[in-house]
Design goal:
By secondary structure, this protein is α/β, with parallel strands linked by helices. It is built from nine helices and 13 strands. The strands form three sheets. The chain has a seven-stranded mixed beta sheet with strand order 8-7-6-9-10-13-12, with helices on both faces. The protein has a four-stranded antiparallel beta sheet with strand order 2-3-4-11. The radius of gyration is 18 Å and the shape is globular.
Length: about 280
């Protein structure tokens, strides 16, 4: 039997979940969101265990109706367009080289990266999604998460992660690993969920965010991981999963309206001491 829940410590300051150092925010049965009374970051405690997360992701793209992600395979033209916007943003900071997309899903972003001149690698926990990528794009190298540690230091010019930073169990540890994999002057680009009240309360299908971050906490997390922040702000969200956003298709060409519905946080960072 896979253990489903575990108590957690603050992902920033590391204090164990305890009534004296955390404040309750909202129940999200069977999990709960609390706020660290020391640093203010919100996180899940209890939260899904790594084993429960791995089992969930294994079903993510496997046509399991319990996972609720059938819509992900729909609207690939939309996701390709989003990927091109994200690559244009990345291009403000670094020229094409070797890129690693963490949580690459079905590989749409990797396809667009190759088209833009990148040598593309992906990391994806779902074996079904990895198999799909290898069938549709054999020129892309895709790895399970446990293989990250086998890659050499400084291998990549860029690391990207979209909509998955908030699911990491150890964000500082992950940021340190990304920093290790980046060459001097390489950049990490992340776009994902903001820390705000509606996000704490929004229903999530089958799993929950392990923590919710803000621009302030991003700066502190990066500093603790040995990264220097180059960009740290809220941007308009190009909805990655249009099936989850009923207004996405209707308002995609009206930026000021889209702004009302789809906002995410973006940060770009580079290893301290890099060129």
């Amino acid at each position: 039997m896979i253990p489903l829940r575990e108590d957690a410590s603050c992902p920033l300051c590391g204090r164990f979940s305890h009534p004296s150092v955390v404040e309750p925010v909202v129940e999200k049965d069977p999990y709960a969101i609390v706020r660290c009374a020391v640093c203010g970051i919100c996180f899940a405690s209890p939260r899904p265990t790594p084993a429960a997360m791995a089992e969930f992701y294994e079903r993510y793209f496997a046509e399991d109706p319990l996972a609720g992600y059938e819509h992900y395979r729909e609207g690939e033209a939309w996701r390709a367009r989003v990927a091109r916007h994200r690559l244009a943003l990345l291009g403000r900071f670094i020229a094409p080289g070797r890129i690693l997309d963490h949580g690459c899903a079905t590989g749409v972003f990797l396809d667009e990266a190759v088209n833009a001149g990148w040598e593309a690698y992906g990391v994806e926990p779902s074996s079904a999604a990895r198999s799909l990528i290898l069938r549709r794009a054999p020129y892309v190298k895709v790895l399970p998460p446990e293989d990250l540690a086998t890659l050499p230091d400084g291998m990549f010019d860029a690391v990207t992660m979209f909509d998955n930073f908030c699911y990491l169990h150890d964000p500082i540890g992950a940021l340190r690993e990304f920093g290790r994999l980046l060459r001097p002057g390489g950049v990490l680009l992340s776009i994902g969920a903001l820390d705000h009240g509606p996000a704490h309360r929004a229903p999530e299908p089958g799993i929950t965010h392990t923590f919710y971050y803000s621009p302030r906490s991003v700066a502190r997390l990066c500093r603790a991981a040995g990264l220097r922040v180059l960009m740290n702000r809220t941007i308009v969200k190009n909805a990655n999963n249009p099936g989850k956003h009923p207004f996405a298709w209707l308002f995609q060409e009206v930026p000021w309206v889209r702004n009302l519905f789809f906002r995410q946080h973006c940060f770009v960072a580079t290893p301290e001491g890099g060129a």
